[in-house]
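ok so i was messing around last nite and threw this chain in just to see what happens. nothing serious, just curious
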Amino acid sequence: MQHKRTKVLFFSPFSFIWPHALPEYQLAKILSNEGFDVTVIGCDKSYSRFCTSMEAAALTIDSTAEERAVICRKCVQNRELLASDSDDIKFKLIESYGDSSEEDIDCPQVTDAILKYENDGVPLGRLALYETLIKFKKSNMILTDFERRYYELFFQNALKVLKQAGAAIKAEKPDVVVCYSPQYVIPGIFSAVAKRENIRVVFIEGSSNDVERYSHLRMWDWETHGLSQPALAALNGFDKYTLTEDGARRAERLMAVRANATALSAYTPASTNASPYDVFGLDKTRKYFLMAMSSYDEVYSGYIIDKLPSSRFEGQVFRDQTEWLKDTVEWFSKHQELQLVVRPHPREFPNRREGITSPNWKEWSSVLQDLPPNVKIDHPDLKFSLYDHLSNASVVITGWSSAAVEALSKGIPVVTYDEKLPTFPLSMQYTGSTVEAYYENLLKAYADTRVEQFKNEAKRWLAYTSEVGTVKVGGRIEDRFPLLKKIRARRLLTEPLCRYLDIKLPPSRVNVNKITSLVLGKGTSLFDLPSQ
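result:
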């Protein structure tokens, strides 16, 4: 009970999103069992005009009041179910800390000045932009009238939670605030208020390992790392990391799930063993480069809320991906002995998760007109699998796409055009800080034959980020027992029964010391802490 004086406050307004709310609660329960004084603040329809839960349910700002009310009711039901499980955790409502009515403040125009707009010491203007930029795949702040309607709603939510958070933090006096995905507007404002009051905020999200997304959590200090990969700040740990049997197994399961295109985050169909030489009309006597472009909006929105450095958005080698694309196509036009396939990121187009085409495509499509004969385009409409490329391509070129590590895991050398952009170690790739270095690296990579070394390093990186960079908290019963996914799909288990089992079954092999050490500030991320 040595931690009983440490007060931890969870701000959890989106209980509707059960795969997020459950592991968040399981973390709160672990801390409570270890003697921490834990309070969870939920929502009782305070953001009923529109919120992240409604977005997750595919509602829009034009959905009816009845449709939105359904989401609110389910959110309340989930919160009450979690609250009924523990007598030690204090569950409270954000509405209990004062008036939750909307402020009578006009939403400002979205110009560069919005980045300096503050209210009560919080950069509310920029923080309220995040979800609008993500939803509409923006890489600038020019909003249509329809997009502005979204921003106005998020701005009003931000004003409301600003007032609520101030009162809640003043009343509870926490030592630490924990928020799931604090880049989103409502938890983002709450986190900013905590920062204003000099209270540390711990970021939590599901694992980036798709197999463990809902059973394991990433945790780090929000002010220190923001949305950057904290493993890159602790590369000495990766250098010393020896691949373990458990780490290898977890990396192999991840690679298998991605290759089958069954992961939630997958934007590519599974391999069909199709030949890119036949589909794209490539010369079968020559190898080819694959140019894997990246989606811009996540980087841009992270930069706008000041949680990614400007170097991740404002390139030092090329101004942006449009310039990189144009320059690379021109270079290949002068090297007819080489072949290039350009693959725009599928997220830039309507897909199973979003129905919007990115504005970036308009710029890129103009570059991709009248291509030289040795340059082809892999448009998402073709539904050509990334993994059929990775069975054939000789080199993968990218900025920061996750396809880079996928390629390395297949033994394919990777060139990133700017060393400030990628989110995996520079030692695993060809990269640099000049245009000249970029083109030199293309030729070096083309001649590289270190297949097994690339495979081993990719596997070690995936294992390291899973084994060292996450903590197990439990997850849903189907996350713990995968066979139950099939049983549940056949409706042999009802949702209420599954939810009951979700919260009642204790997790096994939880690294309690690592969790408590991170919350107590003994490291800025899990990578700073001993594994045992």
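not much to say yet. The chain has a mean pLDDT of 92.
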